[in-house]
Structure formats: C-alpha cells, structure tokens
C-alpha cells in the first residue's frame, strides 16, 4: 500500500468537516517542540540533546517534570537553560507539569511554584504569542476550574497556558459545556491520547477526534497543540501495552497537512521516553537504566534517530506553511523504513512476570514494513522497492513531496528499501538494523521498532543477528530503580558527597565494557577478573552483577515501585574507629549490611568520617593524570565512588545475590599466603581464579575503576605488577613490583609493603543486622597463575609498558 499527495487529493473530502466550519484561517505562529523527560542526565548529554534537537529544526523542549522536589530537576534545568541561552538562542524551553506523576509522588500544583518562579524569567524560556511564559501539563490533576483560575491569578494571569486536559469529560467531543467550564482557564489546549489509536485498533488514519478538538479551539479563539508520535509500546512499571504503530506517524503527518487552519503548535512524543518506546532522541544510560525497559529500549540496539531527517523536512515545511514538503536542498529524498523485529509466529516463554505476556493490544501489530519518503520536485521520476528476507516486494512510484505506505510482508532476516531514479538506478537505500526473527531474543514480545534511515550508502548491508543469551529472566532485585534515604546524622556537606559518589557509582557501573559487553581480554579484565581460562564459568555471572549494579539509580522520572537503601553517618555498629591501616593509622571508610539496624527490611551503608576525606572520582582521575609515574599506579585512584561501589556490591539488592542466587554473595575475601622466611603453609585453592574474584568486592570495584581511568585518560594503570623471581632472600625489586616464587609447592611472596591490598579501609567485614561479622570462606594461596596463561598481546603490552615505566623519572 502506498499513498502520495496526488492520490490522496481524492480522499481529502472526509476532512472537509473541519474546514467547512472554520471559515478563513487566521495567521498563526507555528512552533514544534519535543516532550523531554527531565531526570538524571550528565551535563554533556543534556547539551548534546539540545544540539541535536536544534539541528533538526525543533523550536525547543517541553520539559516534563513529575516530582519538582527531586534534586536532579534543578540540576538538569540548570544544565539546559544556560546552555541553550548561550549557544542556541533560538532554542527555547518550557515547563510541562506532569500532574499524573506528581500525584503519585504526593505532590500538587503548588509544588511547581518554585520552579516556575525561578525559570519563567530565564532568557531561554519560551514565550507565548501574548509575550508571557508558556506553561503546559500532562493531565489535569483532577482539579476543578476554580483551582486552576486561582493558580492563574497567582501569576497575575501573565502566563500562556496550554495544558493537556484531554482526560476531562467532553474534551474530545469539543462539547460546548466543556468550553463553558474550562474556557477561561486555558489559552490553548493540547491533546495527548489521540496521538495513537486505542489499544487493539489498527485505525491509524482515524482523525475525527483531532478534527473536532481543533475546530473547538479555533472557534473559541484558542491555540491548539497536537501530538505527533510513532507508537506507544511499554513493557515496564507494571504495564504491558501496545498502541499502533506501523503507519500511525505516516498518517498523522499527512492528516496534519490537510488540517486547516493548521495547529499553532506540535509536540513530538517524545524526545527521550525510552520505556514508552516513542523517543526520537538520545537514550542516555544514566536516564534509562532500569532492567525491564533496557530489554527493549537502548541507544545501542534500538536507536530511533533514523526518523529525524524525515521529521526535520516536515518541520521545515510546516513552519513555512508549504503545501508540498521538500527534502533539504541538494537531496533527492529523505525518508525511513521501520518494522518490528519479531515475527507474528514468535512465541516467548510464558512466566508469572507480566513482562513475559503479550502486550495488551498486541493483535494490532502487523507483519509489514512501513515507509515514508519525501522526494524532491527537481529530478525524478522516483520509485521505491522493498525487500524482506531477500524476497523482492512491491515497487511504488512516487510524486514530488510526501509519500508513504507499507510493504505488505515481513519475512525473517534482512529488510531493505531502495530509492530508484528515472533510469532505474539505485541512488539511496535504507538497510541494516536488527534482523527479523521468529525467536524471542529479548525474552519478551518486543514491539519497539527498528528504524532505518534512507541514505546514499547503497552498499549491501546485512542485518545484525540479535544475541539470544544476554537476557536472563528479569530479576525483581532492582528493576524499578533505587533511591537513597535516611542520611542519619549526615551533615549537608556529607550528604552532598554521598549523592555525588552515588552519581559517580552509576557512571562507573554503566560505562561501556563494564555494565555491558565486558572485554574479557582487556588488561583490566585479565588482571582483576582473571584470564578467560580461569573465569569462563563465571563470566556470565560477573557480567550480570555489573548489569544489575548499573540499574541501581533513581531513573529519570517518578515511579512508585522504587527500591531503597538506608544511608547513615552515625556508625550504629561502632566500627568507624577501628584502625585498618597500620601505616597511617587509618580508620574505616565505610561499611554495609543487608539489614539496617533500625529498619531491618532495608539494606544499609554507613559512611565513616574518613570517607569524606577521600577525593571524588573526577578529582582523583584529574589529579593522578598530572603525575609522571604515579599515574600508572592504581593505589593513587582510590576515591569515594569506588568505595561506594565496593560497599554496594555487598548488598543483595545491588548484585542480585540473595541466598547466593542467581549470583554468589560478594564479600571481602581474606587471602592468606606464605611470606618469605615464614613457616606457615597453605593448600592449593580448590576452585579456579574466577570463582574467587567474582566473590571479592575489591576485584570487581577496581576493575570498574581501572576501565574508567583507561577510557578517560587513554592509558591503563598497570602498577602494581607481579613479577616472578627466584627467592633466596627477602628480595629487593624495582618500584611498583611484587616478587614471588614457589618453595616446596607453596607460594612465597616478598614482604614488600606494596603487596598489601589496595585499600584495606574500604570496608570492615560482612555484617549481620546486629553488627556481628559473618564468617566467610578464605583463600589460601600457594600459587599464582603463570604468565603464559595470559594472551600474548597482553604479555607484549605489559613488557613494553615496564620498559617505558622504568625509564620514567620519579614524581616530586
């Protein structure tokens, strides 16, 4: 099926019901925004969002805020407002009060006053046509018109209010009674729910509700803001639903062209709502980190930026009031091909978890390829043809402007669309993406589409086969996000340090190569997690620990199913004064327990005074990087974030280790060895090295830290290095080395002070709810892994490093 403007002219009559009753259209200012979920986001990522959105022609972001009291809200707004004003002065921002989420957070309309007061006067805040700050909502909050009028009067009526009140009675019928009740409250109206068909419906072309609402707004001299979106697929937060989907976006773009007068505003749903699948922007890991949605919505596996060129051309035409859309100057076309990556024959394992079920509305998902293309009026004629699973499908002939339709088949394997010029030459192609399969690679009925941009790369790209073994059953451990609470006896300065360390902990665990796709042959993995021959049976569990740890973060908007970790600074078990480092009489940094002493249903971490003398993650990396020789020594990188990671790994909630299932408990492994000239001997370990490293918090925490240093600074801190040496006496070895040998079958290690654990003060022990120490297995070392067990490339790299290191001068 294919449609274009020439063909569609015959269908415009069904839209005349809107036009006939409106008379002459008034001139309007047209603005296009994207709905932006405000949450925990790094500053550079917030800036990138503005840069990308501005590049595609958006006028700004509607900033969805659910709980205005959260600290990350102001932090993120500060990142965005100042950057937009200073770098993209035409890109504006306005606040959209999410009263549905606010209600769940026990917040109300008045709780937004502080934010509105502080930001409505900012140079980057968007103003309505009356010159006043533009304010919107998601939902009406169940409030009466009198409450809203009182709220307006609070601002002396000096706002431009365009709310989403589409849940109120009579809204979609544009009932006169609705306008009598709400007319004085609003300056315009915004429709959210009509952006998609009802669940189970395939009527993507249906337009009557939208037309009635637009007619009502126009006849009452109010602005109208229309929603624009591809689909809604959500399989998280106790919800599993699907609303088409397929050619929904295509039809809305077409119908919008026919609407006269056009809406004053369009709001694209959304820029970054990963869990709802209707994002067109960047899905940053720090915002979208909870287990359930990352199965189907990640930037790596499900990017949606391929739809942006099409939308960009639409935005340009819409704002210019053009009847015929055009691609950018010099382009033959812009467009995209999109599809779901599972076949209708797919059967997923059925468990008790709601996520494993078919989504409500699943029957509306069709086995077809959807396309939309805008072709130039210069050149041509143009045509497109589709391929699915290597099978050639239909060919459609295009007319200048906007064309859209579907290829009526979806086969397993590659999907491809070709744009041909008048000679039949292929000049643009949409291909690649994820392969369509009849299996269930994600463990769920994943309906988040693959979007393939039409580009000038005409090569034969193949699709990417989904990995089928990386999604174990979703653990309930931390899939809803985790917040810190309590902060017992923590000063404001201490609390700030802890919250910063919590942010940095997430950066450590969610970084590529740690939270996902560990490179088991990297230097950090080889040294802290053991060579592959020694950890191959533990790799899946080690990866799972980091994957689960990366979900320990609040997430990017309120949800009522959060997990909680109790934070204390009052030392309930009186462990902080213990001297753990004889050299400098250092005391403990922190300790943890899976049961808080007062609230035993919650895990607990206590931070000791020494913790607050440690540097932050960024501070220590920058400080060490300025050194000549010591920057290669991991001892120099101990910091608050890696300490917090160490403590969190002891918690069942973080590492998913309750009852040693599915991952083994992580504790502080006691390691015994025979020092030179000592008589005590040990026995050989009964397990491979991977068995022990996956149980030792220091190994895991320092692996993440080492990868962070390497990724940020481009070098790997090899020191300390283990060097084999025949021991006839207590050896003297070069700085940064630890000498060892075996005597009578026992490991003998130099008594050099550098062999002590990196930071003995990161924790005290594994503690029960009463503060007593839990007895754990220890490791009696009698041999170390021979260097020959390590890859040749690593051995060569290490040798070259040591040659370079020995030639360096000492730091002052």
Model description:
InterPro entries: Glyco_hydro_71 (IPR005197), MetalloPept_cat_dom_sf (IPR024079). It holds the Pfam family Glyco_hydro_71. GO terms for molecular function: glucan endo-1,3-alpha-glucosidase activity; metallopeptidase activity. The protein is α/β, with parallel strands linked by helices. Helices cover about 25% and strands about 20% of the residues. The strands form 8 sheets. The protein has an 8-stranded parallel beta sheet with strand order 6-5-4-3-2-11-8-7. It has a 5-stranded antiparallel beta sheet with strand order 1-16-13-12-19. A 4-stranded antiparallel beta sheet has the order 15-14-17-18, with no helix packed on it. Strand 17 and strand 18 (about 425-430) form a beta hairpin.
Topology:
Blueprint: E1 2-4, H1 5-8, H2 16-20, E2 31-37, H3 43-55, E3 60-65, H4 71-87, E4 92-98, H5 99-104, H6 113-119, E5 134-138, H7 145-154, E6 160-162, H8 176-182, E7 188-191, H9 208-219, E8 223-228, E9 232-236, E10 239-243, H10 248-258, E11 265-268, H11 308-320, E12 333-339, E13 369-375, E14 383-388, E15 391-397, E16 401-407, E17 415-420, E18 426-430, E19 450-453, E20 482-488, H12 492-510, H13 523-528, H14 532-535, H15 539-549, E21 563-568, E22 579-581, E23 586-587, E24 590-593, E25 604-607, H16 617-625, H17 640-649, H18 652-655, E26 670-672, E27 674-675, H19 689-693, H20 697-713, E28 721-724, E29 737-743, E30 746-749, E31 778-780, H21 792-807
Parallel strand pairs: 2-3, 2-11, 3-4, 4-5, 5-6, 7-8, 8-11, 20-21, 21-25, 26-31, 27-30, 28-29
Antiparallel strand pairs: 1-16, 9-10, 12-13, 12-19, 13-16, 14-15, 14-17, 17-18, 22-23, 24-25, 29-30
């Amino acid at each position: 099926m294919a449609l274009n403007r020439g063909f569609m002219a015959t269908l415009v009559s069904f839209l005349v019901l809107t036009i006939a009753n409106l008379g002459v259209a008034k001139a309007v200012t047209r603005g296009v925004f994207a709905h932006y979920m405000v949450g925990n986001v790094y500053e550079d990522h917030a800036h990138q969002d503005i840069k990308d959105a501005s590049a595609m022609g958006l006028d700004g972001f509607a900033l969805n805020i659910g709980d205005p009291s959260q600290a990350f809200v102001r932090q993120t707004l500060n990142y965005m407002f100042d950057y937009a004003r200073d770098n993209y002065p035409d890109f504006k921002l306005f606040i959209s009060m999410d009263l549905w989420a606010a209600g769940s957070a026990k917040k109300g309309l008045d709780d937004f006053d502080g934010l509105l007061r502080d930001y409505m006067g900012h140079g980057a805040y968007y103003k309505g046509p009356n010159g006043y700050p533009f304010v919107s909502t998601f939902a009406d909050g169940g409030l009466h018109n009198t409450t809203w009028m009182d709220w307006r009067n609070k601002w002396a009526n000096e706002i431009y209010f365009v709310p989403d009140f589409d849940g109120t009675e009579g809204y979609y019928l544009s009932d006169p009674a609705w306008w009598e009740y709400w007319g004085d409250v609003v300056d315009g109206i915004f429709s959210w729910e009509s952006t998609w068909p009802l669940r189970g419906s395939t009527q993507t072309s249906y337009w009557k509700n939208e037309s009635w609402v637009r007619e009502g707004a126009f006849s009452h001299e109010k602005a109208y803001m229309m929603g624009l979106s591809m689909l809604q697929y959500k399989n998280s937060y106790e919800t599993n639903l699907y609303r088409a989907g397929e050619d929904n976006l295509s039809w809305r773009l077409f119908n919008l062209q026919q609407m006269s007068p056009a809406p004053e505003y369009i709001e694209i749903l959304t820029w970054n709502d990963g869990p709802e699948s209707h994002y067109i922007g960047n899905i940053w890991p720090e915002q979208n980190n909870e287990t359930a949605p990352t199965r189907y919505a990640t930037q790596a596996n499900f990017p949606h930026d391929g739809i942006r060129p099409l939308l960009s051309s639409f935005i340009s035409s819409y704002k210019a009031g053009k009847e015929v859309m055009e691609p950018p100057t010099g382009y033959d076309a812009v467009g995209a091909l999109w599809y779901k990556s599972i076949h209708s024959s797919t059967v997923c394992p059925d468990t008790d978890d709601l996520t494993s079920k078919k989504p409500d509305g699943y029957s509306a998902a069709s086995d077809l390829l959807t396309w939309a293309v805008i072709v130039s009026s210069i050149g041509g004629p143009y045509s497109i043809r589709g391929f699915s699973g290597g099978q050639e499908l239909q060919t459609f002939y295009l007319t200048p402007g906007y064309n859209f339709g579907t290829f009526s088949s979806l086969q397993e394997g590659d999907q491809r669309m070709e744009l041909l010029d008048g000679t039949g030459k292929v000049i643009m192609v949409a291909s690649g993406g994820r392969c369509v399969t009849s299996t269930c690679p994600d463990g769920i009925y994943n309906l988040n589409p693959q979007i393939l941009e039409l580009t000038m790369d005409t090569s034969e790209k193949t699709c990417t086969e989904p990995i089928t073994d990386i999604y174990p059953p979703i653990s309930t451990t931390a899939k809803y996000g985790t917040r810190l609470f309590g902060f017992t006896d923590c000063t404001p300065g201490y609390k700030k340090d802890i919250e910063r360390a919590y942010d940095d902990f997430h950066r450590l665990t969610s970084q590529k190569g740690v939270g996902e796709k560990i490179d088991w042959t990297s230097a950090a993995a080889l040294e802290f997690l053991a060579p592959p021959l020694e950890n191959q049976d533990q790799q899946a569990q080690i990866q799972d620990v980091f994957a689960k740890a990366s979900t320990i973060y609040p997430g990017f908007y309120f949800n009522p199913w959060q997990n909680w970790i109790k934070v204390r600074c009052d030392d309930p078990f009186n462990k902080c004064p213990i001297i753990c480092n004889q050299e400098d009489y250092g005391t403990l940094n922190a300790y943890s327990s899976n049961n808080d002493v007062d609230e035993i249903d919650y895990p607990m971490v206590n931070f000791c005074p020494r913790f607050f003398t440690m540097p932050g993650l960024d501070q220590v990396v920058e400080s060490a990087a300025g050194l000549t020789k010591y920057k290669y020594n991991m001892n120099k990188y101990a910091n608050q974030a890696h300490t917090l990671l160490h403590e969190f790994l002891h918690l069942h909630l973080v590492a998913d280790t309750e009852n040693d299932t599915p991952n083994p408990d992580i504790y502080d492994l006691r390691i015994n060895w025979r020092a030179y000239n000592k008589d005590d001997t040990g026995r050989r370990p009964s397990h491979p090295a991977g068995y022990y490293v996956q149980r030792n918090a220091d190994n895991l925490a320092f692996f993440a830290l080492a990868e962070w240093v390497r990724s940020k600074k481009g070098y790997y801190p090899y020191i300390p290095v283990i060097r084999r040496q025949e021991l006839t006496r207590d050896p003297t070895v070069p700085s940064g080395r630890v000498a060892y040998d075996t005597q009578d079958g026992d490991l003998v290690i130099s008594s050099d002070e550098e062999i002590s654990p990196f930071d003995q003060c990161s924790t005290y022990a594994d503690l029960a709810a009463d503060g007593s120490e839990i007895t754990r297995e220890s490791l009696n070392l009698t041999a170390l892994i021979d260097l020959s067990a390590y890859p040749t490339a690593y051995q060569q790299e290490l040798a070259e490093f040591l040659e370079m290191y020995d030639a360096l001068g000492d730091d002052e």
